[in-house]
């Protein structure tokens, strides 16, 4: 299977709840990053995982956490959801030998 | 001042026109420059990836980087209605991911 796949495509959560978003990396890619894209804005870097270790983080609070699994798939967890967390969450993967990322189609999260 | 600035548009052009999209940035440490295209309800798709100053051409697309002016451009020749999308510039300090900084995107409409 090629490409980056994300699930679910949409979900609605209530303020204060927790959410887990999932990403399956492109075959051969061992680096995965997560981005948050608010409406009308460019994506903002949340964090990156390489070989199951977080090796870079943007300006996001600790309630945003992640995991990368041995098969290079990944999860983004967000605790204590806030209304401002409503956004498109993008997963992107790359190999250490390539430039640029391959992005998935994202998960649209709405917090009400 | 934001780290990466981009005119949000919208930009409307007739089919066949040459389109010029631009970004300016403030961080002189950026070495790698990318252009992504994002269709509605989709993740960003990598169009061009360049390192350092100069031009790079790929089909109808030409990416230009002027590091002395901290200015990058994407030119689209013979624009088509299928080019209608949001175009995001992105840049990074290193070549292995970690915190790509995106501009807010320019919405382009190519009218038939």
Task: Provide a quick synopsis of the model.
The complex is a heterodimer of chains A (112) and B (112). With 112 residues, chain A is an all-beta fold. Helix content of chain A is 0%, strand content 51%.
Low-confidence runs of at least 5 consecutive residues of chain B: none
Largest sheet of chain B, described in full?
6 strands, mixed
Shape of chain A: globular
Give a short account of the largest sheet of chain A. 7 strands, mixed
| Coarse morphology of chain B | globular
Please estimate the helix content of chain B: under 10%
N-end to C-end Cα span of chain A: 35 Å
- SSE ordering of chain A: EEEEEEEEEEE
The oligomeric state of the chains shown is: heterodimer
The class by helix and strand makeup of chain B works out as: mainly beta
Cα distance, first to last residue of chain B? 37 Å
Helix tally of chain B equals 0
By DSSP (H or I, 4+ residues per run), the number of helices of chain A equals 0
Helix content of chain A: under 10%
Structural class of chain A: mainly beta
Name the average pLDDT of chain B: 92
Overview of this protein structure:
The complex is a heterodimer of chains A (112) and B (112). By secondary structure, chain A is mainly beta. Helix content of chain A is 0%, strand content 51%. Chain A is built from no helices and eleven strands. In chain A, strands 2, 4, 5, 6, 9, 10 and 11 form a seven-stranded mixed beta sheet that branches. In chain A, strands 1-3-8-7 form a four-stranded antiparallel beta sheet, with no helix packed on it. In chain A, a hairpin with a 7-residue loop joins strand 9 (87-94) and strand 10. The radius of gyration of chain A is 13 Å and the shape is globular. The mean pLDDT of chain A is 91. Chain B is mostly beta strands. Chain B is built from no helices and eleven strands. Chain B has strands spanning 4-6, 11-14, 19-25, 32-38, 45-51, 54-58, 61-66, 71-76, 85-92, 101-102, 106-111. In chain B, strands 2, 4, 5, 9, 10 and 11 form a six-stranded mixed beta sheet that branches. In chain B, strands 1-3-8-7-6 form a five-stranded antiparallel beta sheet, with no helix packed on it. Chain B is globular. The termini of chain B are far apart. The model of chain B has no long low-confidence stretch (mean pLDDT 92). Chain A binds chain B through residues 4, 31, 33, 35, 40-45, 48, 55-56, 58, 90, 92, 94, 96, 99-106, and chain B through 4, 6, 8, 32, 34, 36, 41-46, 49, 51, 88, 90, 95-105.
């Amino acid at each position: 299977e090629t490409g980056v796949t994300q699930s679910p495509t949409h979900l609605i959560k209530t303020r204060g709840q927790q959410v887990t978003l999932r990403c399956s990396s492109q075959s051969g890619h061992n680096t995965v990053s997560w981005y948050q894209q608010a409406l009308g804005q460019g994506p903002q870097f949340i964090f990156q995982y390489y070989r199951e270790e977080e090796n870079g983080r943007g300006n996001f609070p600790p309630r945003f956490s992640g995991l990368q699994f041995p098969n290079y798939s990944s999860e983004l967890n967000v605790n204590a959801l806030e209304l401002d967390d409503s956004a498109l969450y993008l997963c992107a993967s790359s190999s250490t030998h390539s430039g640029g990322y391959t992005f998935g189609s994202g998960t649209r999260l709405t917090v009400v | 001042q934001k780290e990466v600035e981009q005119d949000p548009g919208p930009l409307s052009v007739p089919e066949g026109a040459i389109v010029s999209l631009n970004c300016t940035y403030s961080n002189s440490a950026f070495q790698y420059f990318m252009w992504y295209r994002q269709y509605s309800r989709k993740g960003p798709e990598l169009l061009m990836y360049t390192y350092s100053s100069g031009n790079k051409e790929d089909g109808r697309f030409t990416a230009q980087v002027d590091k002395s002016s901290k200015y990058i451009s994407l030119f689209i020749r013979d624009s088509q209605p299928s080019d209608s999308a949001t175009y995001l510039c992105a840049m990074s300090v290193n070549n292995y991911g970690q915190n790509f900084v995106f501009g807010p995107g320019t919405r382009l409409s190519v009218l038939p």
